[in-house]
Amino acid sequence: MNECNAPNASKHAQIIEAAVAEFQEKGFVAASMDRISARAEVSKRTLYKYFESKENLFRSIVIELSNRFSEVLEIRYQKGRDVREQLTELAWAEGRVLMSPDVMAMSRMIISETMRNPELAAAAQGKLDKTSIFISMLKDAAEDGQLSIDDPEQAGKELIGLIKAKAFWPMVFSGSVLSHSEMKATIDSSVEMMMCRYGGSA
Questions:
Q1: Can you give the pTM of this predicted structure?
Q2: Is 58 buried (19+), middle (13-18) or exposed (0-12) by CB count in 10 A?
């Protein structure tokens, strides 16, 4: 129902953008499909052609946001390759997405809905949490002898937490995004802290 052909992709994007604004402003319960169609400048018929309900539209936004992180999902540890380079590459895969205003708008909407509708938002959490990729890389790096880590799960949460502490959470409140140079400084600092903590004698 949500798939669209290339010629209609712009309408699909217009609707998603309008829905993000409507949900963020009104909340899921008070959001109106009529207002979303007006914001998107499409007919109600077109809106319902792509999204049969508010629930379907909200889930589609979550999926869209999750898809933006597809580059993160594709990164795997490469045995023997310098671990600092690999951690930096993984951090940048996350960081590039967090530099997108569209991504931050969707993130802010979903986070605000968590306060108003925990059940609906809880369903989004599993699709958006990419911490397992960070955990997997650190676990493999430890098994390869490049890092000294007793608890890869905790270490993975620490790395993604270091990045989000500067590149995500402050931006949620400000509505802005980091510049490329600011993101580079954040990533370099985060990776350096991980190397100092877990580099050991490697």
A1: 0.80
A2: buried
